[in-house]
Design a protein that fits this description.
The chain has 375 residues and is α+β, with helices and mostly antiparallel strands. The protein folds into three domains: 2-48, no CATH class; 55-169, Translation factors (Elongation Factor Tu (Ef-tu), domain 3); 189-368, P-loop containing nucleotide triphosphate hydrolases (Rossmann fold), CATH 3.40.50.300. It contains eight helices and 18 strands. The chain has helices at residues 189-196, 213-226, 236-239, 251-270, 284-294, 308-314, 319-324, 355-368; strands at residues 2-4, 8-9, 12-17, 20-22, 32-35, 46-48, 55-66, 77-82, 85-98, 105-106, 116-129, 140-144, 151-158, 201-206, 231-235, 274-278, 299-305, 346-349. The strands form four sheets. Strands 7-11-9-8-12-13 form a six-stranded antiparallel β-barrel. A five-stranded parallel β-sheet has the order 15-16-14-17-18, with helices on both faces. A three-stranded antiparallel β-sheet has the order 2-1-6, with no helix packed on it. A hairpin with a 6-residue loop joins β12 (140-144) and β13 (151-158). α2 crosses α8 (355-368). The chain is globular and about 65 Å long. It starts with a strand and ends in a 7-residue tail after the last helix. The relative contact order is 0.12. The model is unreliable at 162-171 (pLDDT under 50).
């Protein structure tokens, strides 16, 4: 059997019940499966035959019925209940609504009570699913409001997807060529860190636009370089002009943006260099993915916190004002959500602390946790 979404393969060793072990089982029996291998399988995960498995998708096309008077909000997070699994997701596009009387399509960008439409659903975690026409059990879902826990919609997955759909997280995809193997040099990470007299680390600054991320990042870089500490700033707007210029601001685009940056930061850290990132990185799941790529022991999450109105007052470019006029779509804090860190390593309040105080706080953390030695 293959465990999804991890894609790890094992064999069923035992089928356990209160009445004893069974040779085979079927619905609706209540059983416990014992696998031959130690595989992390939890509620909502799925076991399937390796040659007959559902698709793992981050984006699906759906037919949706809305069950609430308040309209559906595009790009706002909802809880998606699929089989026994709950994931977070957002509807990024409403292709059309269906007139139930004449069965005609009608173009619109909002859905209200009892309306039916076709919508693109982007998921923050991979979903093992099938088109409803192929498998009803894995092809339907309900939509839950995360604020009230009310059911606000229900839908089915259809077998029509956009050509640019990403069905897998890029970090899960194997290299295209089967002839590619990993190479390991004869210089170890410890040898690099010994020469530099520091440990590689990623200081991950997250927060709203104009909360102070970039200012803190470059000020910290100046301080570390003044102490002859090799470091480098990866700034969100700079990266989107080069490496990530092909990505949009949809949940999927933001996810891939963060994944690529985390991979770059990991390479810097392997060289013993301290990386300071300045990205909004609004979704908790994306930051969790970055932490897994970089490594738990090297990832330092810093919440650069400032009230929305403070960020608006600092906005010299008029971005928030343009977003409120719908001139900039999917703008974090206005038309797209920001999920604040639950337990960051460092919590900075830039409406109360000066930039120098914030930088000293981060520098103190790096020193106390022995990423850098006192000089």
């Amino acid at each position: 059997v293959m465990a999804l979404p991890s894609r790890k393969i094992s064999r069923v060793k035992r089928i356990v019940t209160h009445a004893g072990d069974l040779e085979y089982a079927f619905a609706p029996l209540s059983i416990t499966l014992v696998l031959e291998d130690e595989i992390d399988v939890g509620r909502g995960d799925m076991l399937a035959h390796p040659s007959n498995q559902p698709s793992l998708k981050y984006e699906v096309e759906t037919i949706l019925v809305w069950m609430r008077e308040e309209p559906m909000e595009l790009n706002s997070p909802y809880i998606i209940k699929h089989t026994t699994k709950t994931v977070r997701g957002a509807f990024s596009r409403l292709a059309y609504k269906i007139d139930p009387n004449e069965l005609h399509r009608k173009n619109d960008n909002r859905m209200v009570l009892n309306e039916i439409g076709r919508a693109t659903l982007e998921l923050f975690q991979p979903l093992a699913c099938d088109p409803y026409a192929r498998n009803r059990s894995t092809g339907n879902f309900i939509v839950i409001d995360p604020r009230s826990n009310d059911t606000v919609g229900a839908g089915v997955i259809i077998d029509r997807v956009k050509s640019q759909e990403r069905v897998d997280l890029a970090s899960d995809i194997k290299p295209v060529s089967r002839n590619i193997v990993s190479h390991f040099g004869i210089v170890t990470k410890e040898e690099r860190e010994s020469i530099l007299d520091q440990k590689g680390a990623t200081v991950w600054l997250t927060g709203l636009s104009f909360s102070g991320k970039s200012t803190i990042a470059y000020t910290l870089e100046k301080l570390l370089m003044g102490q002859k500490r090799p470091c480098y700033v990866l700034d969100g707007e700079n990266i989107r002009q080069g490496l990530n210029r092909d990505l949009d601001f949809s949940p999927g685009g933001r996810r891939e943006n963060i994944r690529r940056i985390a991979e770059v930061a990991r390479l810097f850290n392997d060289a013993g260099i301290i990386v300071i990132t300045a990205f909004i990185s609004p979704y908790q799941d994306d930051r969790k993915g970055a932490r897994e790529i970089v490594g738990e022991e090297k990832f330092i999450e810093v919440f650069v916190d400032a009230p929305l109105e403070t960020c608006v007052q600092r906005d010299t470019r008029g971005l928030y004002d343009a977003a409120r006029k719908n001139e900039i779509p999917k703008f974090t804090g206005i038309s797209a959500p920001y999920e604040a860190p639950m337990a960051p390593h460092i919590h900075l309040r830039t409406d109360e602390q000066s930039i120098e105080e914030c930088v000293r706080t981060i520098h103190r953390y790096l020193t106390l946790n022995e990423f850098i030695q006192r000089k």
